[in-house]
Specification:
The complex is a heterodimer of chains A (368) and B (372).
Chain A: H1 2-16, H2 19-38, E1 47-53, H3 58-69, E2 73-79, H4 85-90, E3 96-100, H5 104-110, E4 113-121, H6 125-147, E5 155-163, H7 171-200, H8 204-208, H9 214-242, H10 252-276, H11 280-298, H12 310-316, H13 320-333, H14 338-362
Parallel strand pairs in A: 1-2, 1-3
Antiparallel strand pairs in A: 3-4
Chain B: H1 2-16, H2 19-39, E1 47-53, H3 58-68, E2 73-79, H4 82-90, E3 96-100, H5 104-111, E4 113-121, H6 125-150, E5 161-169, H7 176-207, H8 210-214, H9 220-250, H10 258-282, H11 286-302, H12 315-322, H13 325-339, H14 343-367
Parallel strand pairs in B: 1-2, 1-3
Antiparallel strand pairs in B: 3-4
Helix pairs in contact in B: 1-9, 2-7, 2-9, 7-9, 7-10, 7-11, 7-13, 9-10, 10-13, 10-14, 13-14
Classes of the chains: A alpha/beta (368), B alpha/beta (372).
């Protein structure tokens, strides 16, 4: 036991004496959370647009003013002729061109019918759809006002209620996602690199001839990273709670316990990688390929899993971050209890046991 | 010049004798470019729908048929009550609830007005936004059908109507992959380039071979260039592979000039590798280098306009994107591939990236010291 504690201490020294890495370990999650919280939003606003106003009358100008005043659009360019549209798109600054027919107001008032053409840059289909809809509804409002406020018969009024996240904040989705990402990075990658480092620098030999059992040796390697990861969980929770106003609706202890479970899964992954690799570079590349990218792509927080083709949906089930992400979302945002997340927890537990079993079996006591 | 050539020979030998690096440059991007665009998909479809129908009238039935046949929604259950439907939301079996109140048809016909409740699980913002909009759209359509049934619209409108027509340029089929593949190619280049460059000098430091270089007559410029050029060439190889994959698998042929893509790619790689080398000159161990380059990479990619539109970011974040080579290349790549922009359209971006490259590389040269 005493030897074990000495080993754990040694690992802590390793980490605490590398000031630069330590600083990054603590700073990275905070910067990411803040970035995600403030800079990244899926909402589409402030799109730059251009207008080709062939009419130049009261109505067309009123509509342009309205578009410009809305939070969705900035009118940045006035185009004078049809052939100028193409070059305007090609320089890349505008997302849409609004074209008014000549004599817009005249035909609107006299024939009761006028046309506006919206030309969207559909390289990004989602943005194109959204801004076309926004513009149509702004134009629709203007038209409604021209009508006067006559009631339209047989109206169905849909009332839309946004559950759990009324302001549609991206952070509710990103905070659990960043937690999964950071934990994978620190718990899994750092553990694998720390063990492989001993191999690469040939200090493994010394450790293997020590009287400490291999099992305890591995545990002593993992403990500091488990500890650091927990500190990160707490930091992320504090930052997102205080600065970003993300609520913690469920039980805090349950959340931390589940995080610990996921950290253990991640450490187990790291151990497994370390048994397969020989150099730090290799370990890092594999961590990047099989841990970080799948977390980012198949974890469900960047891209909706339901929209993926079936094979990818199936593959996503073996990504531990997916399950952790589900748990955190349920517990933290929806405020559900253990009875609703026990299945996901069981999956994580099963994965940890499986991975640990493999890595203990593969862990070589002998050198080459 | 001769010294530089010798140095280049050494670097190339090292690369070719390291199968891990070759694998990373040649095979990985191909596999990723084949898999990623399927995963990185913001198209929202198959929203799971739970309907609570208190009315059980012909209208409510018609509506349910309409919405489940729309293609956007997948009707998972008809719940007897709102609370039951909420349980489906909590367990993740539904994303969206539509509640049709009792007497829906009757009040609509008698009082000219009726309600319908759409409740969306808004934890995933994009999905909630689009899902809610789709539902509202379908309700609007449905409403129009009913109005048509009851009112005979006069042939000539008695009230002024503005007809809004819309057209989608550059991607008329609204193919999301056309938008994502060029950008994903850029992120792959970013990951490979910055990680390789960052680890390289540190590796020499950690293994101790940098001592030999420090005592040789090689100048700082030659050293940095010797590191830069091989990775630069490998980056261009990756870019070529990527363009081939997007042609073979996604039939994407750039509308604009391919030479222009390479020209910009060269400037981009120069800048990106400069950042990597800069990190490398600061870090002492490979662990540190990995950490810092992961951090920088993450910032570059998240603020690069791939995941969320740059226009929607706050001012300070937009300023950061001005020193982000990835943001420039993603934008330019999309412009050339989809719209066929020419050099005059991207001139400003090109010189910005080149300028950034000169700054980062000079910084790396200055910061690399031959003394320990």
């Amino acid at each position: 036991m005493k030897q074990f504690i000495i080993f754990v201490k040694k690992e802590f020294y390793h980490i605490f004496r590398d000031r630069k890495s330590l600083l990054i370990i603590f700073l990275m999650p905070i910067v990411q959370i803040i970035l995600f919280g403030f800079a990244l939003t899926n909402e589409i606003k402030n799109s730059n647009i251009a207008v080709l106003d062939n009419a130049g009358d009261e109505s067309s100008r009123a509509i342009i003013r309205r578009l410009d005043a809305s939070r969705y659009f900035n009118v940045v360019q006035i185009i004078h002729a049809q052939p100028e549209i193409e070059p305007a798109f090609k320089t890349g600054n505008i997302r849409m061109v609004v074209v008014f027919q000549p004599g817009f107001r005249h035909s609107l008032l006299h024939t009761n019918h006028a046309q506006i053409q919206l030309i969207a840059d559909a390289s990004d289909p989602n943005t194109a759809t959204a801004i076309t809809n926004y513009a149509s509804s702004i134009i629709g409002d203007y038209q409604q006002e021209l009508y006067g406020l006559t009631a339209i018969p047989f109206m169905i009024q849909p009332e839309i209620r946004m559950l759990y996240n009324p302001q549609l904040k991206g952070t509710y989705n990103f905070v659990p996602g960043v937690m999964a990402m950071i934990l994978i990075l620190i718990a899994a990658m750092m553990t694998s690199v720390a063990i492989v480092r001993e191999k690469e620098l040939n200090t493994m030999e010394v450790l293997l001839v020590s009287p400490l059992k291999p099992l305890l040796f591995i545990i002593s390697k993992a403990i500091p990273y488990i500890f650091l990861s927990l500190v990160n969980v707490v930091t992320i929770l504090i930052v997102s709670y205080t600065i970003l106003d993300v609520p913690i609706n469920g039980n805090l202890f349950l959340l931390i316990a589940e995080s610990l479970l996921f950290i253990i899964t991640a450490v187990a992954l790291g151990l497994m990688i370390s048994t397969f690799t020989k150099t730090q570079q290799e370990a890092q590349m594999i961590s990047l390929m099989v841990l970080l990218l799948p977390t980012l792509l198949l974890g469900g927080f960047m891209f909706p899993i339901e929209s993926m083709p079936l094979p990818l949906q199936i593959v996503s089930n073996i990504v531990p971050s997916k399950w952790y992400f589900l748990i955190v979302k349920d517990v933290m945002i929806k405020g559900l209890g253990f009875s609703q997340v026990w299945k996901e927890s069981l999956v994580l537990l099963g994965m940890s046991v499986f991975l640990l079993a493999i890595s203990f079996k593969k862990f070589k006591i002998r050198l080459s | 010049m001769k010294k530089l050539l010798v140095l280049l020979e050494k670097e190339f030998r090292q690369v070719f004798r390291n199968p891990a690096i070759l694998r990373m440059v040649l095979i990985m991007p191909v596999i990723q470019l084949i898999v990623f665009p399927f995963a990185a998909n913001y198209e929202v479809k198959n929203v799971l729908l739970s309907v609570v129908d208190h009315d059980h009238s012909s209208y409510s039935q018609k509506f349910i048929n309409k919405i489940s046949g729309s293609g956007y929604f997948k009707l998972t259950d008809l719940s007897p009550s709102y609370n039951k439907a909420m349980e489906s939301i909590e367990s993740g079996e539904a994303d969206l609830i539509i509640e049709i109140p009792a007497g829906f048809e009757k009040t609509l016909v008698k009082e000219n007005k009726s309600n319908m409740l759409i409740a969306v699980n808004a934890v995933n913002g994009t999905k909630a936004n689009l899902g809610g909009a789709y539902a509202a759209n379908i309700i609007r359509d449905f409403n129009k059908e009913i109005q048509m049934e009851w009112i005979q619209f006069p042939k000539l409108n008695s009230q002024p109507t503005i007809e809004v027509t819309s057209s989608n340029w550059y991607n008329p089929t609204m193919n999301y992959k056309l938008f994502m593949v060029p950008a994903i190619l850029v992120t792959l280049l970013t990951m490979i380039g910055s990680l390789m460059a960052a680890l390289n000098i540190v590796h020499e430091k950690e293994v101790g071979t940098i001592e030999q270089i420090n005592v040789s007559p090689i100048t700082k410029w030659q050293f940095i260039l010797g590191k830069l050029i091989p990775f630069w060439i490998m980056g261009l190889v990756t870019l070529t592979l990527g363009l081939i994959v997007s042609w073979v698998f996604y039939s994407i042929i750039p509308v604009g000039s391919i030479a222009l893509i390479y020209l910009f790619g060269m400037a981009f790689l120069f800048t990106l590798l400069g950042v990597g080398l800069l990190v490398s000159t600061y870090a002492e161990t490979q662990t540190q280098a990995t950490f810092v380059s992961f951090f920088v990479m993450m910032l570059f990619m998240l603020l690069g306009g791939l995941y969320t539109p740059i226009e929607s970011m706050p001012e300070w974040a937009k300023w950061i994107t001005k020193i982000n080579p990835v943001a420039y290349f993603i934008e330019v790549m999309r412009m050339i591939v989809l719209k066929g922009s020419g050099f005059s359209d991207i001139r400003a971006d090109f010189f910005s990236v080149l300028g950034l490259g000169i700054v980062f590389n000079s910084w790396a040269v200055i910061n690399y010291r031959k003394r320990s």
